[in-house]
Amino acid sequence: MTEPDVAIVGGGLLGRLLAWRAALSGLRVALYDANDRLGNEATAWVAGGMVTPQAEAVDADPELVSMGRRSLALWPEWLRALPTPVHFSDRGTLLVWQRADGGEARRFESLLKARDSQATCQHLDAEQLAAREPLLENRFREALYLPGEAHVDNRQLLPALADALDVLGVECHWNRRVEDAERPQARLVIDCRGKSAQSRWKQLRGVRGEIVRLHAPGIELHHMIRLLHPRYSIYLISRPGGNLVVGATAIESDDCSPVSVRGALELLSAAYAVLPDLGEARILELDCDCRPALPDNRPAIRYTPEPRLLEVNGLYRHGFLLSPAVVEEVLAILPRLLEHPDYPLEASSRWPSLGAREEVLACH
Q: Residue 1's pLDDT is what?
């Protein structure tokens, strides 16, 4: 049997995307994941699937925003190439707030304009808001609209990527955990294990994300909704089949235990404050997971020539926002590493910080 060019360890969002795109480029690929092809143990299973570079610009540095815009352009192209349909919507984000939190809205708008020169934030009055999102009629006096932002159905995407790997003949080893000391047979191993790589990449920490999934037939939102609040940020996203995802973006914690009473109350109270009709929705699921983050909350790549190991990690809460751009960058350097195993990685031509930090991180 011919040895694969690349063995990817970790079959979450990043690992599956990378395996798929690498195979499409003509490489022989093997994928190892501790879970099954459905992906319901992956961090990306507990997510909103949001691709919102403008909404993130108030907290993220400009390069991450640029990477997000690149991903936003790639997602519809890549999804069309999958053998299984995946729900995708790019109707944008509506930001709403309670009257007492008007200062938070002014702060958001001011920071967005200062940090993102390409921002296209639109201010809506109550009538304009109702025209865009009829379910919010008479709910809020004003809103901000960020056009073009998108979301992907994460729970359709993960199995769809597994289907795509089967079509391409990728050697998939589901339910196969690979430990630090092990090395799958391949010319190059790529570690995409996220927080599971913490034993090797000591700087990694977990950032907890919580969601509640509701069944609310008849309540369909045309846009992503974010509730601006000084203490927490809550989003609401419609899913096919009359379902709705309500989530909180980030909690600084490594704790992956079940959602607390307080967490559930905050999620459900915020959802009810935005849409009182959700009072009759049914709770399908309360869930959480911890996303992998590095100290600066940016992704990083590092390479060890011996034993020919490339590590990609630190997507923080930006998995769907950044994964396509990161995958594209990894694919750009793979031919060089496969041809010249001892070749030192240089700063990335497209995303300098992703490459420029390699030597520093490799020292830890």
A: 64
